[in-house]
Amino acid sequence: MKVLAFNGSPNSEGNTWHAIKMVTAELENEGIETEIVQVGNKAVRGCVACGQCFKIRNQQCVLPGDEVNTWIQKMKEADGILLGSPVHYAAMGGAMKSFLDRAFYVTGVNDSMLRHKVGAAVVAVRRSGGLPTFDQLNNYLLYSEMLLPSSNYWNVIHGTRPGEAVQDLEGVQIMRVLGKNMAWLLKLVENGKGAVTPPEREAKTYMNFIH
Fold it and tell me: 3-class DSSP state for residue 198?
């Protein structure tokens, strides 16, 4: 089994990275392979709402010049996804938002590629805005019908300078418990294959409220 983690911080080894590493350490202790993909310092274009991925449905975004399509294929092959972001104005980082908008829409319109994979999110913050950012990240996982493990509090850790997050003892415990629960859920899903029949996927119903 493998978990693919995305670091949405411009700082490749800042507190978001430390939070991700705390989770992946527990996964690796349980024999689960992990990989961290650096997103936050990359030039990632935002979705332009062209609708081509919905029309073509070839598991790709048509926008050129970045690594989003490579990352989408990595997500397809992974058993679990871990999203990590710092807090910018009580929200996730811009590059991370651009990546998630495009990647999760592509995976969604291509037969819900992430459905029933295990997904989790972690946030690193100096002071405030952690919960709004955590909520933003979870929206992508929930919309995709992913399975979310929990911890013993919201998955937010505090620190300003790179590495300060390790001093947040409660935050460290949150990440550790999340990693253990994520590993357990991944094993439940893996061991349930062929033994428990998953619910059939329903075609998405779209509507609006303009008459």
Answer: coil
Tell me if 27 sits within 8 A of 183, measured CB to CB: yes
According to DSSP, the residues that pair with 38 across neighbouring strands are: 7
pTM: 0.96
- To which CATH superfamily is domain 2-192 assigned? Flavodoxin domain (3.40.50.360)
> Looking at 18-96, which runs of residues are DSSP E strands?
33-38, 80-86
Blockwise average pLDDT, block size 10, the chain, 211 residues: 98 97 98 98 97 96 97 98 98 98 97 97 97 98 98 98 97 98 98 95 89 63
CB-based contacts of 105: which residues, under 8 Å, 6+ apart? 47, 53, 54
Are 146 and 109 in contact by the 8 Å Cβ rule? The answer is: no
Residues in the chain: 211
